[in-house]
Amino acid sequence: MCRPIHIDALASYWHRLCDPALDENLLWLRVGSTSEKLLYLESGWGQGDILELPLHVGIIILHPLRLEILAYLDRLLCKPVETSLQNSLTTASPERKAHLSTVINLGQKMADFNLEKKYQEQEETFFDDGREIELLHFIYSNPDIETIRNSPTKVLAAIDNFARTKKYLMNVGEDKGRIVADLIAEVKPEVMVELGGYIGYSCVLFGDAVRKAGGKRYFSLERNPEFAAVIASLVDLAGLSDIVKVIVGSSDVSIKRLHASGDLKHIDLMFLDHYKPAYTTDLKLCEELGLITPSTVLAADNVIAPGNPPYLEYVRSSVEQKKRATKFGGTVNGVDSRFADKTANQYLKREGKAQLDETRVGNPLLIYESKLVNSFEPSGVPDGIEITRCVGVETS
């Protein structure tokens, strides 16, 4: 069964997400199941045109220049397009080929997602509306709660069950979580720090992995005290209280306090999954405090969806580039203006306008090697983990 949808509606949605001046370069990526061809729509669609698409096919709206996902429109119904991206590669310029190849890889990842494990749809309001406490009641009212106790795997399964059958949760999920868990097994960190714990999914998954790898401490830094209480409850249920310590407060203040007290002297592995504009400023803070040294590894979530241009620019820059770097887009209320308003204002209602120290310079002499590992959100939206290794320090 299909229903028509007008290009006008998509264009209007686009204008709410991105600079209208970029409309000529608008890129919509259509992705279906593994049996579907990967097709695309790019320019050429006029006002009043109508598209139709089967129910299981969605549309991803990408930023045309940075290839960040601006929106994933599920269950939009659109008319199939004849030309595939693969065919376009044969006549494209070298720059265009690189651009299209990236889109193809992104789409193939989406097509390979196992829909059986997909979370509930992400609503307009998708956190801090009481669902976090509902999750606790859901888990602790399980008649098999005693079989869940002291089992990190079963606690994670219970969280996934809630997110798949009840309400969406903004967790790292199985797929991206596996990338970081494998990294933990490789790095074997004694001390791992997590920025942004939410309800504790990553804390349980990675805390368990750190313990199995012989690690001593997993710090979970969470600003929201209610979320931190949920984390602590589920960490206790999973039997991880001996290795996991939940720290309540803003990430920068918590990092400074842990360092000043001597509890945090070095970071072996850090997982960044908190307020997106704070990734770079908090990394620079850790650099200035001497917590990042050669052998430190960083794993940053959500670098594709919703995207994090300032962070990727920083960790992918050479020492010389960092030394002479000037800000690309300036700041608005202490937040880099390259972030969309929705991302910059994600916590506005509860915490007010963010005030980040954008003057922080970090330690530009640190040498990083960084790469993106593509994956997807538990909702099926393509995303990735940026894995960055500090491999040296340049002598000035």
Automatic annotation (TrEMBL):
<dbReference type="GO" id="GO:0032259">
    <property type="term" value="P:methylation"/>
</dbReference>
<dbReference type="InterPro" id="IPR029063">
    <property type="entry name" value="SAM-dependent_MTases_sf"/>
</dbReference>
<keyword id="KW-0489">Methyltransferase</keyword>
<dbReference type="GO" id="GO:0008171">
    <property type="term" value="F:O-methyltransferase activity"/>
</dbReference>
<dbReference type="GO" id="GO:0006584">
    <property type="term" value="P:catecholamine metabolic process"/>
</dbReference>
<protein>
    <recommendedName>
        <fullName>catechol O-methyltransferase</fullName>
        <ecNumber>2.1.1.6</ecNumber>
    </recommendedName>
</protein>
<comment type="similarity">
    <text>Belongs to the class I-like SAM-binding methyltransferase superfamily. Cation-dependent O-methyltransferase family.</text>
</comment>
<dbReference type="Pfam" id="PF13578">
    <property type="entry name" value="Methyltransf_24"/>
</dbReference>
<dbReference type="InterPro" id="IPR002935">
    <property type="entry name" value="SAM_O-MeTrfase"/>
</dbReference>
<keyword id="KW-0949">S-adenosyl-L-methionine</keyword>
<keyword id="KW-0808">Transferase</keyword>
<keyword id="KW-0128">Catecholamine metabolism</keyword>
